[in-house]
Amino acid sequence: MCGIVGYIGQRDSVPIILDSLARLEYRGYDSAGIAVINEQGLRGSKSVGKLARLVSLLHDDPLHGSIGLGHTRWATHGRPNDVNAHPHLDCSGSIAVVHNGIIENYAELRERLKAQGHRFVSETDTEVISHLIESHDKGDVVEAVRRTLAELRGAFGLGVISSKDPSRLIFARNGASPLIVGVGENEMFVASDIPALLQYTRETVVIQEGEMVVVGSDGYKLTSFEGAPIERKALRITWNAAQAEKSGYKHFMLKEIFEQPSVVKETLAGRIDEDYDVRLEPELGSIDDELLRSISKICITGCGTAYHAGMVGMYLLRSLVGLPVEMELASEFRYGDPVVDPATLVLAISQSGETADTIEAAKIAKGRGATLLGVCNVVGSHLTRLDDGTLYTRGGPEIGVAATKTYTAQVTAMILAALHLARVRGTVPPQRLREIARATSLLPAAVDVVLNESDRIKRIARTMSEAQSVLFLGRYINYPTALEGALKLKEISYIHAEGYAAGEMKHGPIALLDRRTPVVAVVTSGHVREKILSNVAEAKAREAPIICVAHADDADVADIADEIIPVPRVDPLLAPIVNVAPLQLLAYHIADFKGCDVDQPRNLAKTVTVE
Ligand code: AGP
């Protein structure tokens, strides 16, 4: 999730843009840049690294101009470096573009533009936008942008300035990349997030999906991409800066839980084609179809939440690909004589790409000749420099220490990997794969439905906040869901919690149960539903309070459960994406009731870079 700012007015835009970008620093980024228009034309500066480096560059080589764009980049396509930083220019150097999101069809556009003689300098998808505007520029930049928007596919927020039309900023939004206009006195501001505007104005106009805005110092014109005028009054923002950074949510963790529908959508973007075939080739590097057909085993490794996402992947790969799949905690993999060889595909999962145990496990796997596929959220991180190919999750920066949206993004990546591998190896009829892929594309909406249950979950959480111990139960592909729910609860509320395979209850844990030990069970549709239902009945017989994640119309569950958190029916293979959200919210509300530091739990770090 990149940061975008724009200014046009009577003042020098440079200090205003830098200050606005600084207000977006909390989101995390890897490079920053600025472009302005002045009497010399379009000028800019950009660099990898923090804003401070850009400020130093501007100190040595000052810029000024009453109209400008600024950007902080969270890399999705192309490593973090100076060249890939935004803004990106066209060949003539008269058009500058900043962008947030994914241009799904950038590869074909890039090839077409190169054939027309456009020269590209970066590895980014963004650069095709500036060249495409140039190719459509017949003297009216606004019209050229409209024609460009008609060709772009994907979710994006973008900003454009041109030295050929120095009196206007142009912005457009398609999908979940926010853009807000700030209305000042004879000056206008645009930003991708409210904190960047608050010190200048509280009068704001949200640009919605499929809309474009042309901003001059005296006002703005909002239209559809096609040009149909749209009327929208400014709204006054009452948040303070801290509230604005969390978009009004009480904690970053809650904001990130609610970002999950758009994160799943972003992670899927461009990876399921129009026929509902999953195609990951362009991004898997040397891990091509031939190699994927040659492997005889898969080993998945990671830590904490990443490990749980990998476990969901294990069930998916076993079911759809039919290969032996081993799970190994990275800290165990390192010292446990792992049996991997050149016929093994090792999936190393890490949100940060910097977790020490996962990095070392990846090195050992490589050292034994295995093919290493990294599943990572941070472009250019250590793991992505070790692996043979990276399947990026597009979770954006996750501020809360407890992983939520990045877990969902990792599970989404597991679904994509399993569908891709099954197609390449021909282990499942194409029609069945397309059914699953189509159902996968509907998951964002399913997660949205579950998030609407937050108030019910908050009420249930209040009844659990005094518990000393909680048991989470799941079976099959929801066993990792139970593990993840337990991890969330213990790491942010400090209540002891265990995730267990429900079939294991009678082998020990059932001795724990009494009326003081709540049991949270995932009882959704699938071949193990009856089995887990009987495990829940056993727990009920021990007077344990029973909370079920289940379907609203499941009468059997209603007969047993004290509380039901309803979730929609989805393909059982995809259920973990939907079923984890209630458990995240349960942990969040319990921790919040207890007054715990939800975003920064005690003893924990966001990234464990030491053993
Ligand atoms: C999960 O909420 C924790 N933040 C932790 O278990 C985390 O998943 C683990 O440290 C792995 O981090 P990584 O994904 O960055 O490698």
Would you mind describing this structure in some detail?
The strands form 4 sheets. The protein has an 8-stranded antiparallel sheet with strand order 3-2-4-1-10-9-11-14, covered by helices on one side. Strands 5-6-7-8-12-13 form a 6-stranded antiparallel sheet, covered by helices on one side. It is globular. It folds into 3 domains: 243 residues, 4-Layer Sandwich (Glutamine Phosphoribosylpyrophosphate, subunit 1, domain 1), CATH 3.60.20.10; 187 residues, Glucose-6-phosphate isomerase like protein, domain 1 (Rossmann fold, 3-Layer(aba) Sandwich); 145 residues, 3-Layer(aba) Sandwich (Rossmann fold), CATH 3.40.50. It is α/β, with parallel strands linked by helices. It has 21 helices and 24 strands. The protein is 36% helix and 22% strand. Bound molecules: 2-deoxy-2-amino glucitol-6-phosphate (AGP). The site of 2-deoxy-2-amino glucitol-6-phosphate has 15 residues, from helix 10. 2-deoxy-2-amino glucitol-6-phosphate binds next to helix 10.
- What's the overall average pLDDT, rounded? 95
Number of helices: 21
What is the terminal separation in angstroms?
A: 30 Å
Overall structural class, as computed from helix and strand content, comes to: alpha/beta
CATH class of the largest domain: Alpha Beta
Shape: globular
Give a quick account of the main beta sheet: strands, pairing sense, barrel closure.
8 strands, antiparallel
Q: How many independent structural domains?
A: 3
Ligands bound here? 2-deoxy-2-amino glucitol-6-phosphate
β-sheet strand percentage? 15-25%
Strand order of the largest sheet: 3-2-4-1-10-9-11-14
Radius of gyration: 25 Å
